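Dear colleagues,

I hope this message finds you well. In preparation for our joint manuscript, I am sending the Aldo/keto reductase (Umezawaea endophytica) sequence together with its predicted structure, so that both groups work from identical material. I would be grateful if you could confirm receipt.
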Amino acid sequence: MNTLGKTGIKVSPLCLGAMMFGAWGNADHDDCVGIVHRALDAGINFIDTADVYSAGESEVIVGKALATVDRSRVVLATKVGSPMGDDPNASGASRRWITAACEASLRRLGTDYLDLYQVHRPDPATDVDETLGALGDLVHAGKIRAFGSSTFPAEQIVEAQWVAERRGRERFRTEQPPYSMLVRGAEATVFPVAQAHGLGVIPWSPLAGGWLSGGFGAGRANTSERDRLLPRRPGAGGRFDLAVPVNRRKLEIVTDLAAVAAEAGLTMVEMALAFVLEHPAVSAAIIGPRTSAHLETSLSAPDVRLEPAVLDRIDEIVPPGTNVNPEDVGWWPPALVDPARRRRSGER
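The corresponding structure tokens are as follows:
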């Protein structure tokens, strides 16, 4: 077991992500419940979901699975912030929405508290002081035990820590960034900041959305489904579209990495997950199986330690601190997405 940052909460090296439970992935509730129970039996005690996953259906499924186990032995996390319908106030990190969304998540999950509640993405429309105040009140009310952020850039993590200190607020205790052998940008800034402030790091997509699963290649990937679920800037091209030059380059790199794994006597999944777990900032890596078979391929990873020569070879193929595709950051500041924020209006 690892400690989740400085919270004192002990978590398994693998965290069961539930994004694929429900309409986004596996619509068979009983099958998904079985995946949860198998993960728990295998020693995973950490489950992560979000209100937005399949419009709440994922939380409902996780709640069904936990109804027949000892809830006190499970570290349960969910997230808030992504749009839940067409109500303009049913998203973001305002006190109004956080308070309502937390109650809704508790109902769907069938529990009276969350071990970890995370802001899914930065909300430029809301003062971080308001967000911290609302989350702190949930801690004091016993609704949540700790709270964290997801896909926040380093400067916003630092700002939130500064505001918490100056205003006497409870503070973010974890960060959930994208991180894999193909997406290493977090190593440059987010990880050092998280370590400096004692945050637990819980990387999402350690298999790079399927690129490192061993199953991606021409004719083998359901690109439309993958691209529908993963965020993308307009005009950036499909994340798995091989007509995009950077994706062709990514496939070449995956081929090279697969050769490294084979030479080391490992599966691609084992090497990919072991690589993420090797970083000292990481508390747990989130896996997101859609099927029981997907889960089984991941369970051996915590027992794998990569030799220095293997890690050096990975560094040669993908240099530390770099993203093979710069678009794989998971969130883009409005100043980069909205042209109106970069251009003067009216006459000059």
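For the figure legend, we might mention the following. The beta strands are 2-3, 10-11, 14-17, 46-48, 75-80, 116-119, 147-150, 174-176, 200-201, 285-287. Residues 218-224 have pLDDT under 50 and may be disordered.

With kind regards,
E.M.
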